Each structure stands twice: as C-alpha cells, then as structure tokens.
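ok, trying the design again with the full structure, not the truncated one.
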C-alpha cells in the first residue's frame, strides 16, 4: 500500500466507514495529513465500546507513516486506559476531559487547567438549590468524587466508583471537570455561568459537562500542535457530538460519523 493510500476504518452503527486519511483533495488542493484526531465514544469505539482490530491496525499504520495520533475525549484518563488498546496508547497523545488535561505517550502531564474553587463552589451551590437530588460529579486529575453513588453505566464508567462527599466537601475541591445529571435547570445554569466556565451539554441533553472557561478540545489541539510543530490545518478529525464542533472548525478536514449530531454533520467535510 502506498503512503498516500493508507486507510483508517471506523465503526458507524455497526458498519465499517472507510476514510482515506493520508491525502484529501479539498477545495482543489492536496492536504497532507500530519495528525489524526479521534474522538472515542461513537467514533473510534464501536457499539460494544471496543476498538476493532481493523481500526487498531489502521491507527498503528498511520503512526508508522509519521502521522501523530491524538485521542480527544470527554472521558478521564482511567476510562481511556480501559477502552483503548495499549499498543495505541503507547503511540498517542491523549486530550482528556474535553481538553482540561493533556498527556503524552509516556502518560506525563503536558497541561492541566482546573476550574477555580470559588467558581466551582458557586456552581455546586446553584445546582443543589435548584435540584437537591441532582447528581454532581467532580473530577480532579483522574480522581472521581460525587455527592452520591453513580449507577448510570450509559454515561459513566461504573466499573469505578466515586468517593462520595458531602456538598461542603465538594466545594473545597479544584475540579478538572464537573459533571451534572438529573438537572432540569440546564438553561438557567448556562445563563448564570456561561461567562465564567465552558459548559457543554451532550448525550442528548442528559449530561452537563463543565470545564475552565479556556478549556476545549480545540485549545488542547492548538497547544499540542505548537509543541510538536505542525499546523492544525494539516489535521483530520473524526467526531460525533457537540464537544467536537470546535475541532471541526479548526482542522483541515473533518469527518462526522453516521451517528453524529446534525450540527456536526452540517459543518463536516464528509459524513
């Protein structure tokens, strides 16, 4: 197989979707791919939350051809380790928590941006007043805390259990990320805090993800591109949800999965 014909295969609702990621003819010019950016859920992972052998081999082949492999996910590092084969992890940089934490191939922390404690405390107080029974999770550098036990395996990796803390203990933490479910007042939360933090609602409105105001997958990719000396316009990105929109806006070529939200499909170069 020639260098300009390497194929990456990704699962889309149980079917294989093929995309030529070495070269794309786009707007009458040839794009040379320097980096491949992959979301996990609904993208690299299939419906069984696995990376298929075919996809695994394709990603490794891309790395062998000199492309940088970047996993960009909302998940914490422990979930990335659970779902992504070691032979890929050894070859990739991981953007975790939607960009709040970046780790390189050796699991060393490149960057971490947490939410200031005073802002986190305001958010927790708001949620507990609006919805006393809502679920509040606090992630701090791959440690998981919550105001109650979490059993929703559709949104969380329930093989791990959070350390349950009272609200007055949670507000003392400096979160890498805040996760909220069972909250009806999402619009009110956004209106009250949109100037202080980055709020992303995913999973069909079930999950509220809150990061530092300057945190996003796109900002993390820009940080990585500066460190490794490539242009984000030489990246191809694959994704499916709202937290991938900023990546689609800056990368040279974007592929929305068949199961992607309509807003992502509308701006994608390919579906």
């Amino acid at each position: 197989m020639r260098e300009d014909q390497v194929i990456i295969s990704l699962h889309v609702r149980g079917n294989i979707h093929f995309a030529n990621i070495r070269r794309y003819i786009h707007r009458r010019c040839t794009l040379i791919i320097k980096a491949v950016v992959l979301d996990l859920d609904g993208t690299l992972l299939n419906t069984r939350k696995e990376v298929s052998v075919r996809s695994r081999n394709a990603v490794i082949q891309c790395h062998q051809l000199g492309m940088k492999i970047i996993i960009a996910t909302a998940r914490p590092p422990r979930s990335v380790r659970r779902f992504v084969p070691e032979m890929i992890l050894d070859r990739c940089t991981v953007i975790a928590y939607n960009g709040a934490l970046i780790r390189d191939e050796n699991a060393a922390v490149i960057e971490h941006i947490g939410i200031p404690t005073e802002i986190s405390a305001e958010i927790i107080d708001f949620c507990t007043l609006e919805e006393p029974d809502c679920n509040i999770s606090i992630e701090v550098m791959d440690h998981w805390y919550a105001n109650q036990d979490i059993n929703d395996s559709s949104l969380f990796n329930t093989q791990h259990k959070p350390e349950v803390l009272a609200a007055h203990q949670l507000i003392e933490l400096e979160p890498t990320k805040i996760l909220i479910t069972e909250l009806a007042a999402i619009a009110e939360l956004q209106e009250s805090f949109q100037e202080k933090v980055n709020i992303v609602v995913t999973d069909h409105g079930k999950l509220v993800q809150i990061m530092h105001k300057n945190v996003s997958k796109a900002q993390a990719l820009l940080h990585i591109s500066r460190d490794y000396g490539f242009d984000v316009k030489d990246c191809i990105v694959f994704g499916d949800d709202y937290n991938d929109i900023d990546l689609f806006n800056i990368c040279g070529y974007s592929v929305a999965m068949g199961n992607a939200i309509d807003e992502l499909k509308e701006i994608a170069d390919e579906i």
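Keeping the full-length input from now on. The chain has ten helices and 17 strands.
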